[in-house]
Amino acid sequence: MRGLRLEVKEVTESGVVRHILAGQEKQETAAESRSDPVEVLKDSKMSGNDDLATLRQSKLPIIWVLGGPGSGKGTQCARLVAKYGFIHLSSGDLLREEVSSGSERGKQLNEIMATGQLVPKDIVLDLIKQAILKNVNTAKGFLIDGYPREIQQGVDFEDKIAPCSLVLYFDCSDQTMTVRLLGRAKDSGRVDDNEEAIKKRLVTFHEHSEPVMEHYKAKVARIDANVDPETIFNLSQQNVDRILANL
């Protein structure tokens, strides 16, 4: 696509991009003129007939990692990777990588996100699936960061990929998360790290996360994330070790 200059500031895990569109000179390709990019992605066959038997038979731990903005789940994921050798996957990172790859799918995703639309859920799931299968022969387990964000995403994941072994939920008070995010804003420069935006993000998080926690309560390990990182990590280790012992 020539003449389109797009500055992307951030892609969230749910596939929303905050962006600035400038110098807009667009020449439509044939594909653009005849199809909505969302429909093109939905209609295309993304991953073929991937054989999931290896993954399902391997009994590799698959751990969903959930927590509000500022709960510290990113820090804990990094420590769990270092401790256990897990593969850390984030849907937001996978979307960014696909867009930057310059692939045909990446171009379609870029168009969708540039207009503020949500990336189709099945496309996000397919990106996660491909990343898991790519690493299945060498991985010791998988941390799926920020997923699922709603019950149906979890149901689809377990149906189309493999059962989740554990849900690590970093349970943190809104007050603590707000203080951490405001502190981070001094260095990050993120436009959504201001008090009003934080309040909205927390409301959205609770609305989506609580039904997920209830639906998967048999697999959920609630970690008190209001305390120091070392204590949080020790609690996380205990739950991961328990799961590993039963695989």
Structure description:
Helices cover 53% and strands 15% of the residues. It has 247 residues and is of the alpha/beta class. The model is unreliable at 1-10, 16-34 and 44-50 (pLDDT under 50).
Please provide a brief summary of the model.
The chain is α/β, with parallel strands linked by helices and 247 residues long. The chain has helices at residues 30-34, 37-43, 53-58, 73-84, 91-101, 104-114, 121-135, 151-160, 174-188, 195-215, 229-246; strands spanning 5-11, 17-22, 62-67, 87-90, 142-145, 166-171, 220-224.
Task: Fill in the keyword field for this structure.
single chain, 11 helices, 247 residues, Rossmann fold, alpha/beta, two-stranded antiparallel sheet, five-stranded parallel β-sheet
The dominant shape is globular
The count of strands amounts to 7
The CATH class label of the domain at 56-92 and 116-246 is Alpha Beta
CATH superfamily of the domain at 56-92 and 116-246: P-loop containing nucleotide triphosphate hydrolases
Average pLDDT taken over every residue: 82
Helix/strand-derived category reads alpha/beta
Helical percentage: 40-55%
CATH architecture of the domain at 56-92 and 116-246: 3-Layer(aba) Sandwich
The CATH topology of the domain at 56-92 and 116-246 comes to Rossmann fold
Provide the succession of SSEs.
Answer: EEHHHEHEHHHEHEHHEH
Radius of gyration: 19 Å
- Report how far apart the termini are: 49 Å
Q: What share of residues are in beta strands? A: 15-25%
What's the helix count?
A: 11
Strand numbers in spatial order across the main sheet: 4-5-3-6-7
- Largest sheet descriptor: 5 strands, parallel
**Low-pLDDT segments, ≥5 res:** 1-10, 16-34, 44-50
